[in-house]
Write a structure and sequence with these properties.
By secondary structure, the chain is an alpha/beta fold. Helix content is about 45%, strand content about 15%. It has helices at about 10-20, 40-45, 80-90, 110-120, 135-150, 155-165, 195, 200-210, 220-225, 230-240, 250-260, 265-285, 295-310, 315-320, 335-340, 360-365, 395-405, 415-420, 435-445, 450-455, 475-485, 495-510, and strands at about 50-60, 65-70, 75-80, 95-105, 125, 175, 190, 210-215, 325, 345-350, 375-380, 425-430, 460, 490-495.
Length: about 500
């Protein structure tokens, strides 16, 4: 950057030192020629990278940090710290760790670190002042190697500091984190260790013989649309939600407020508009301009994501080729994946509301229809984005749904009832303390057929309790295991992506 009187960043050396600590972990280097452009960085983060390692020059101007990144043509582009934080905050899934190494720019990383932490980034490693490249070249390989062992970021920082304690600037790296336990990740797997792993063969056999019913939550779509807590907070802030602060993350409560504060239909249209805006914001560079055609946009995004990874969750689900999918995800991402996999899916809405009583379904049009691998049935328990009146969104909606499905046994078609009672259930993409899971889980477990259900190996995939939101992660984990254990359900600790990736590998390997 000669125009600013700054020496070029030693790109190859930085990549080499970081890669040495990653020990084979997949990584991408965006360096030179316009690759280190803000939009390109954001595009890669949307693909699910856990760590953003940013090396650049910067400066403090009127108390605000500025960074020198690249423009698309390779020229220098100045980006404010505020802009970087705001753009990261727009991502559906934030990186778990941001490492800031700002050369010849004392104070910039330390000023930017808290800003990024406030957007929700779990951990930010930054420098308190101008740190020498020699110190960083010794610090970083140790830091990443130790982090790779168990995901404990505070322990990794301590070990790396010990490795440079003879340097005069050893104290420069500082960690900003929102975590209580200091763990960024953990090794996914079944509770019970090796004993839990014994369940894999039974589950794979049930899948291959069509005796598995995936029960899917909204969490599967979070990489595309973001999580429901963020939506609830956005609505609470925009429409001046007046209730207790901890209720601001509860979407049914905030949606209930909007249905009264505005009108009964308002939150449903807002819900759909929010999803379309998320697509436009997050995938504008990869989807054509379909001029407001949400369905075509979503189809293009789904195809793009499946093309990026052979283990895309919806792709793996479609390739399982089971006859029935029960879903609380209102999007059509699964529909598109099934069609792409060569299936001809049929869609059925749960008619939990009186407004849906006159809706004709597949069983009215074809009473002899039986779901199969070739013609699987997608049963939408909580509605569809294509039919706003079908969405289960407010508190009243959840109460009406629960009353309906428990008071009218015929509300759910018999093939669905049979699958929920006489097949292996696979719960994916749910947050156990959210309304959608609690209502759905109790409505399933309280139905007839519990004796037949005990014959199968059921699995619930659950993220390890979030340290930034849970007072006691260890006790929370014990509670979740006991909660599921009473229903003969095995917990797989990890993300839905972790589980489905491992499942896909085992299916391709023959099921062992």
């Amino acid at each position: 950057m000669p125009e600013y009187g700054l020496a070029p960043v030693e790109v190859n050396a930085q990549i080499r030192h970081v890669a040495a600590g990653l020990d084979g972990i997949a990584h991408e280097a965006l360096a030179s020629g316009g690759a280190a452009h803000l939009e390109t960085i954001l595009e890669y983060l949307r693909r699910g990278f856990d760590i953003l390692y940013l090396v650049c020059h910067g400066a403090m101007r009127r108390g605000e940090p500025w960074l020198w990144l690249e423009a698309p043509d390779g020229a220098t582009a100045r980006v404010s710290g505020k802009q970087l934080a705001e753009r990261l905050g727009e991502l559906s899934i934030l990186p778990r760790l941001v490492v800031l190494v700002s050369c010849e720019s004392a104070g910039v990383p330390a000023a930017l670190g808290p800003m990024l932490a406030e957007t929700g980034v779990p951990a930010v490693l930054a420098m308190q002042g101008k740190i020498s490249m020699e110190t960083m070249n010794r610090f970083l390989p140790v830091f990443f190697k130790e982090l790779n062992r168990d995901g404990c970021v505070d322990r990794a920082v301590a070990a790396a500091r010990a490795a440079v304690q003879d340097r005069p600037d050893w104290w420069m790296p500082v960690l900003f984190q929102r975590l209580k336990s200091g763990r960024l990740w953990y090794k996914p797997g079944f509770s019970g260790g090796s004993a839990g792993m014994e369940k894999w063969p039974a589950l794979i056999r049930h899948i291959k013989r069509g005796r598995c019913t995936p029960v899917l939550g909204y969490g599967l779509a979070e990489p595309v649309f973001g999580n429901r807590r963020d939506l609830a907070n956005y609505w609470a802030e925009t429409y001046c939600f007046p209730m207790r602060p901890h209720h601001r993350e509860n979407l049914p409560q905030v949606a209930q407020y909007l249905s009264v504060n505005q009108d009964a239909f308002f939150p449903f249209e807002e819900f759909i508009d929010y999803h379309e805006k998320k697509l436009d914001n997050n995938y504008a560079r990869v989807i054509p301009d379909y001029r407001g055609d949400f369905s075509r946009k979503l189809k293009a995004v789904g195809a793009y994501r499946r093309g990026q990874s052979g283990d895309d969750p919806y792709r793996v689900l479609a390739e399982m080729r089971v006859p029935i999918y029960v879903t609380a995800d209102p999007s059509a991402l699964l529909d598109h994946a099934l069609v792409a996999a060569g299936s001809n899916p049929k869609i059925e809405l749960c008619r939990w509301s009186r407004e849906l009583e006159d809706t004709r379904g597949i069983f009215e049009d074809d009473p002899d229809f039986r779901p199969s691998a070739e013609e699987p049935l997608i049963y939408r328990l909580f509605g569809s984005l294509d039919h706003p009146e079908s969405l289960v969104l407010t508190e009243d909606n959840y109460f009406d749904f629960l009353i309906g499905v428990t008071g009218n046994n015929d509300l759910i078609p018999s093939p669905i009832r049979r699958a929920l009672a006489d097949s292996a259930l696979l719960f994916l993409g749910f947050d156990i303390d959210a309304w959608d899971f609690r209502v759905l889980f109790r409505s399933i477990m309280n139905r007839e057929g519990s004796g037949r259900r005990r014959r199968y190996a059921h699995v619930a995939v659950q993220i390890d309790p979030e340290s930034s939101r849970i007072l006691s992660p260890g006790r929370a984990r014990d509670y979740l295991e006991e909660y599921f254990g009473t229903s003969d359900i095995n917990i797989y600790w990890g993300s839905a992506e972790d589980f489905l990736s491992e499942l896909a590998g085992r299916l391709r390997a023959g099921g062992n």
